[in-house]
Amino acid sequence: MSTITKKEIEDDISRFKAIKALGDQEGGKILIAALESDIRSNIDTITTLAGEDEMKIRIAIVSLKKNLELLNTLKKAESLLDIAMDALKNVEGDE
């Protein structure tokens, strides 16, 4: 069983802080709104093409997946940061 090191948690905290900061800035808010719009468009495309052009549906699904993953990363950064901070407390002093 692999255990996570203090250094790995600190690296995660650094990444989550940077992602959270991006999401809190005006540009990040614009990015989030654009991703949400793209996701709605992807869903609309998928439902419109249902039973028709399979390749276009696959492309829309891949795009939807990518947009959802990016949006989740931006929106979950704060909660992931909290989790990582708690984990760091549990490994304090462990190297």
Short description:
This protein has helices at 6-24, 26-49, 54-91. With 95 residues, the protein is mainly alpha-helical.
Description:
- It is a single chain.
- This protein has one domain (6-89).
- The protein is built from 3 helices and no strands.
- The protein has helices at residues 6-24, 26-49, 54-91.
- It is elongated and about 55 Å long.
Features:
single chain; 95 residues; mainly alpha
Q: What kind of sheet is the major sheet?
A: none
| Total domain modules | 1
List the total number of helices. Answer: 3
Number of strands: 0
Q: State the helicity in percent bands.
A: over 70%
Order of helices and strands: HHH
Low-confidence stretches: none
User: What is Rg?
Assistant: 18 Å
By secondary-structure content and strand pairing, the structural class works out as: mainly alpha
Strand content: under 5%
- Mean pLDDT reading: 91
List the helices and strands and how they pair.
Elements: H1 6-24, H2 26-49, H3 54-91
Helix pairs in contact: 1-2, 1-3, 2-3
